[in-house]
Amino acid sequence: MDAERWNSLDGMRRQVTRDEARRIVVRAQLLDAERPGDVVEVAKQLGAIKIDSTSVIAPAEHSIPWSRIGYAYEPGQL
Question: How many folded domains does the chain comprise?
Answer without folding.
Answer: 1
